[in-house]
């Protein structure tokens, strides 16, 4: 159970770092560039925040699933 929990946390952390760095890069680009169109800036940030929210939710559900023992219960059948 401990290996599964750490695997879920590490894989989610890698993707959060990836999408988080993209999010920060485009935020910095939008703030420090005067010619960056504002509507495009918000659309890009919206599309980059959707995977971040999804990854965090998936991690929360996976941790709950591992702690409840659903997977171990299903192995019996």
Explain what the structure shows:
This protein has one domain (2-68). The protein starts with a helix and ends with a helix. The chain has helices spanning 2-32, 38-68, 70-75. With 77 residues, the protein is an all-alpha fold.
Lay out the secondary structure.
Layout: H1 2-32, H2 38-68, H3 70-75
The helix-and-strand class reads: mainly alpha
What order do the SSEs take from the amino end to the carboxyl end, as H and E? HHH
Query: DSSP helix count?
Result: 3
Helix fraction, binned, reads: over 70%
Largest sheet at a glance?
Answer: none
Mean pLDDT: 85
Distance between the terminal alpha carbons, to the nearest Å? 19 Å
Number of domains: 1
Anisotropy-based shape: elongated
The parts where pLDDT drops under 50 for at least 5 residues are none
In total, the number of strands is: 0
Write down the oligomeric state.
Answer: single chain
Radius of gyration, rounded?
A: 18 Å
Strand content: under 5%
What's a quick, concise take on this entry?
The chain has 77 residues and is mainly α. Helix content is 88%, strand content 0%.
């Amino acid at each position: 159970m401990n290996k599964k929990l750490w695997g879920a946390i590490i894989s989610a952390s890698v993707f959060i770092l990836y999408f988080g760095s993209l999010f920060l890069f485009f935020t910095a680009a939008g703030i420090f560039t005067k010619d960056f169109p504002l509507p495009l800036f918000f659309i890009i940030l919206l599309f980059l925040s959707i995977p971040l929210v999804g990854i965090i939710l998936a991690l929360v559900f996976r941790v709950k699933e591992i702690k409840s023992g659903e997977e171990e219960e299903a192995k019996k059948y």
